[in-house]
Design goal:
By secondary structure, the chain is of the alpha+beta class. The protein folds into three domains: 17-64; 147-199 and 306-367; 203-303, Alpha-Beta Plaits (2-Layer Sandwich), CATH 3.30.70. The longest helix has 107 residues, at 3-109. It has five helices and 14 strands. The N and C termini lie far apart (164 Å).
């Protein structure tokens, strides 16, 4: 190979290397650009990480503050809850005490009177009002009960009641506050006091029983309101079931009750006597309801009064030195003697040791 050919071959090889160098330079430039971009992204990521770290720190501080505030509020709420529980317990105790007081007052003011059985015959006046002219008063059966509770007092151990025939004797006895009872073993001093009674009450109870209306209860909620009202009217209109023509029905589906008013008087009483009544719901289904008369109560002529016995005195501070009968005789002898300002004794009652006695007084009570 001559020199020119070698030079030509060298130039071609140089060009090839020059192309490779250019290509590598280009790749180097691209790599440098990518490195710069990566450095920029790294810088931005670092800044973002720093920002996020600060935000995290702020959030952690806020969370700690919120947690501390929540703990403080929770502590306050627990303290308030404990305080409210204590207040609730106190109010429950007060309520219990008030209920006991109410029960005591209810028991104290409760009237428990057993009405005696009476043979009563109802008659109709010859000159009665015609049916078509009867007013509202004839639509009800009216009753009036006069309640006069007995006046009573409780005698304790060492006390006695002495009733004289003359109230002037009782007045003279009361003027001497202390009396000396002569016994075989010596002298016994007793006190004399007037008999003051607790508050008594008198009143009337007026009862009106409707002759046309009955109250129906325990009505099942099986049908719509209007449909059940129709079933009630149909059932109570059947003479075969003991009913009659219905004038009006007031039905409450929530409480399951109704007021049934009949056209004719007397049907309501006959229906109420059955206590139960059959209601036909459909061809295959029926039910039973409870029936009762409609009663109206009214309290009238309520009176309260205090009383002082005119002919009876209370003896106290009696010592249990003799048996009951002997000591009672000594008391009666003493208060019968005119020299002791006494007089004729109508009745005397002494309460011996470890006993008490309830005494009822019905006469000789002066109202104030």
């Amino acid at each position: 190979m001559n020199l020119s050919e070698k030079l030509q071959e060298a130039e071609e090889e140089l060009k090839l290397w020059q192309v490779k160098i250019d290509k590598l330079e280009k790749q180097k430039s691209e790599l440098i650009c990518e490195k710069l971009d990566a450095d920029e992204r790294k810088k931005q990521a670092a800044q973002q990480l720093c920002t996020l770290s600060k935000e995290q720190e702020n959030l952690e501080r806020d969370f700690e503050k919120a947690e501390q505030s929540f703990k403080e509020k929770l502590f306050d709420k627990k303290a308030e809850g404990a305080k409210l529980k204590g207040l609730l317990l106190q109010l429950e105790n007060e309520l219990h005490c008030n209920q006991q007081h109410c029960d005591l007052l209810r028991t104290k003011f409760k009237v428990n009177v057993g009405l005696p059985e009476k043979n009563i015959k109802f008659t109709k006046l010859e000159e009665s009002v015609p049916i078509d002219q009867e007013g509202e008063d004839f639509l009800k059966i009216k009753c009036c009960y006069n309640i006069s509770p007995k006046v009573f007092m409780v005698l304790q151990n060492g006390q006695a009641l002495v009733t004289f025939e003359d109230e002037q004797v009782a007045n003279r006895i009361l003027k001497v506050p202390k009396h000396h009872i002569m016994l075989d073993s010596g002298k016994m001093d007793v006190k004399v006091q007037p008999v003051k009674l607790d508050t008594a009450r008198k009143f009337e109870i007026h009862v009106d029983i409707s002759r046309k209306t009955v109250k129906v209860s325990q009505i099942p909620n099986k049908l719509p309101e209007e449909q059940m009202r129709d079933k009630l009217e149909i059932s109570f209109s059947k003479p075969s079931l003991g009913g009659g023509e219905v004038e009006n029905i007031s039905y409450d589906c929530i409480s399951g009750t109704a007021l049934v008013t009949f056209v004719e008087k007397g049907i309501a009483q006959h229906v109420a006597e059955q206590k139960k009544y059959k209601i036909i719901l459909n061809e295959t289904q029926s039910c039973w309801v409870m029936i009762e008369s409609v009663w109206d109560y009214d309290l009238g002529k309520f009176q309260t009064f205090n009383g002082i016995c005119k002919r009876t005195v209370l003896i106290s501070d009696i010592k249990n030195e003799l048996d009951e009968e002997e000591l009672q005789d000594k008391l009666e002898i003493h208060f019968q003697k005119p020299s002791n300002h006494g007089g004729e004794v109508e009745n005397i009652k002494y309460v011996p040791k470890d006993q008490h006695l309830t005494v009822y007084l019905e006469q000789d009570v002066e109202e104030k």
